[in-house]
Amino acid sequence: MPKTVTSRKLKSWPITGGLLERFGLRSAEIDARSRSMVREIVGGRFEGTEADLVAAMVYATGDPDLVNQVALSHDPVGRARSALGRARAIVVDVTMVSVGIRLPAGQSLAVAVRAPGAESLARSSGTTRAAAGMKRLWDDFGRGGLIVIGNAPTALLAVLDLAATVGPPACVIATCAGLAGAEEAKEALVESGLPHLVVRGSGGGIGVAVGAVNHLLGWSPESPGAGENSER
């Protein structure tokens, strides 16, 4: 029988001649190289604070093509940061978006799918929990807040209806991906006149939304302590 080897008994780490030894980089070097590449990718397509925001999104996803899909209008950076500075809430569509956001002390965040009564309203109205949760949260958190749709196009459609009927949010970030309804919902946001950041088309996803929100909250790979807190 072949001799059993366990990781505890390995005498060298990284394994001599292994992939980690040959190609692995330290966390600080990964971050430095990534930031340099992102700055080159964003280039002259965006300027000022919007360029910084798009760079953060590309950094978070590792997708250079993202710069060709992003649309920003009506000063989304300024409107979002103004709302956050006035302690207005962040409202996200699903739990996975909230998990990645690095909330500073005192910043409130609400999750639509976890809103009280969302499940029963979704059943009775024939909508999704994310859409129903937006309705439940709108008066206390959504109106005047920062809305983040990373997953559910139906939640974005609900946001647009509520904004037009009840009152608008400060800014909407929409990066929901999907082949059925996502592109149409995001185009409706682009045409709405609301301050927005959108990943157009069927692409996007939760990671893009999280990268954008963390940047707006002031966190970046260059923030104090970021290297020590990295999970790479």
Task: Give an account of the 3D structure.
The structure is a single chain. The chain is of the alpha/beta class and 232 residues long. Helix content is 47%, strand content 9%. It has eleven helices and six strands. It has helices spanning 19-23, 27-42, 48-61, 76-85, 95-100, 118-125, 129-142, 153-165, 182-190, 206-216, 226-229; strands spanning 70-73, 90-92, 109-111, 146-149, 171-174, 196-199. Strands 1-6-5-4-2-3 form a six-stranded mixed sheet, sandwiched between helices. Helix 2 crosses helix 3, helix 3 (48-61) packs across helix 10 and helix 6 (118-125) packs across helix 7 (129-142). The longest helix is centred in the first third of the chain and has 16 residues, at 27-42. 40% of the residues are buried. Residues 223-229 have low confidence and may be disordered.
* Succession of helices and strands: HHHEHEHEHHEHEHEHH
User: Unreliable runs, pLDDT <50, ≥5 residues?
Assistant: 223-229
Quantity of strands, as a count: 6
Helix content: 40-55%
Rounded to the nearest angstrom, the radius of gyration is 20 Å
Mean model confidence by pLDDT = 91
Count of runs of 4 or more consecutive helical residues = 11
Strand order of the largest sheet: 1-6-5-4-2-3
Largest sheet: 6 strands, mixed
Q: Classify the secondary structure makeup into a structural class.
A: alpha/beta
Q: Between the first and last Cα atoms, what is the distance in angstroms?
A: 37 Å
Please indicate the percent range of residues in DSSP E strands (runs of 2 or more): 5-15%
- Global geometry: globular
